[in-house]
Design the sequence.
């Protein structure tokens, strides 16, 4: 009965907002990105459930193209849900939104605090890069403790030889993820020996080539752990190892732990199949619904809008909690009811 009233109350709150503005536009940096596909599926689902007219634009990793698309959004005074091609364009587009008093909601790529703070209708909904790195380190430690009896050195150099596949070398988010996993593992007590920290641009094919090159130059014995800033790169690492007979599904031999971020369907399957070890992910439905709630709020004051969002926030920045998933331990999942259901 309690669940029924919770659902009913949230639907009523959302219906009031949707009536204020039922047309929302979403702007993606690149629709072919796995993260974007999962987010778009969740956003489309909640938009359909609440009769919100959603129009999606693919930036195709083209900064100029996306800026032209966004100029159209603000010219029509539409709320915009935005994943930027280039984080440097945040201030520019916030100023555009201000001129037409439009609401702009950034997700995934986090603008700077002073940029969000500069305009009352600018929001960020996403996740914490630092927390994702900490959670990756926790999965690594749990793996070596539970599966290897704390024995992580397989080549006898008394160190944990790891490769980190980084999304970019310029984004704050990737730096936070990378720094946090290294700092946390070091604090736990691991003596780390980074074989390589390589940029693969969040891309599966590039990641595969990076790992193949490392194996060719240093040998597969130089790999005791692979940490990736996203699942796409983790899957690329899996393919590279598969070609050498590693990570084919048997976690007891010829197996190098690989940890990703995002919780994409392909990565989840690879983990269940014993090819990847774990991933860190947020509730995409919650992420999409919070973005849509803010976009559909119309002229509602931020104080009143806050009552409709079940997450605490500061400076109009909302962070969705991360979860851990692995094939060796059942982690507690912090998720939420499926609010896209109109009826039980």
Sequence:
């Amino acid at each position: 009965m309690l669940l029924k009233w919770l659902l009913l109350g949230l639907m009523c709150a959302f219906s009031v907002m949707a009536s204020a503005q039922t047309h929302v536009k979403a702007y993606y940096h690149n629709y072919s990105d796995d993260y974007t596909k999962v987010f778009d599926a969740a956003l489309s689902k909640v938009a359909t459930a609440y009769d919100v007219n959603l129009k999606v634009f693919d930036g195709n990793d083209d900064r100029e193209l996306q800026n032209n698309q966004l100029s159209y959004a603000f010219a029509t005074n539409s709320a915009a849900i935005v994943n930027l091609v280039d984080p440097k364009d945040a201030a520019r587009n916030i100023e555009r939104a201000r001129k037409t008093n439009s609401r702009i909601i950034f997700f995934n790529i986090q603008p700077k605090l002073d940029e969000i703070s500069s305009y009352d209708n600018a929001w960020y909904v996403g996740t914490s890069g630092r927390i994702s790195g900490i959670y990756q380190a926790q999965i690594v430690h749990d793996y070596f403790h539970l599966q290897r009896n704390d024995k992580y050195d397989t080549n006898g150099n008394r160190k944990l030889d790891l490769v980190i596949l980084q999304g970019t070398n310029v984004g704050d988010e990737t730096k936070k993820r990378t720094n946090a996993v290294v700092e946390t593992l070091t604090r736990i007590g691991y003596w780390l020996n980074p074989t390589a920290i390589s940029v693969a641009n969040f891309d599966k094919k590039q990641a595969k080539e990076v790992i193949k090159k490392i194996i060719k130059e240093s040998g597969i014995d130089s790999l005791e752990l692979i940490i990736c800033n996203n699942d796409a790169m983790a899957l690329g690492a899996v393919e590279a190892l598969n070609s050498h007979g590693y990570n084919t599904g048997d976690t007891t031999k010829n197996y190098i732990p690989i940890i990703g971020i995002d919780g994409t369907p392909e990565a989840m399957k690879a983990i269940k199949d014993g090819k990847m070890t774990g991933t860190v992910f947020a509730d995409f439905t919650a992420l999409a619904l919070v973005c849509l709630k803010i976009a559909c709020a119309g002229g509602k004051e931020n104080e009143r809008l806050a009552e409709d969002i079940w997450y605490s926030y500061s400076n109009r920045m909302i962070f969705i909690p991360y979860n851990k998933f692995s094939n060796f331990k059942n982690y507690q999942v912090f998720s939420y009811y499926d609010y896209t259901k109109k009826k039980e």
Q: What stands out?
A: The chain has twelve helices and twelve strands.
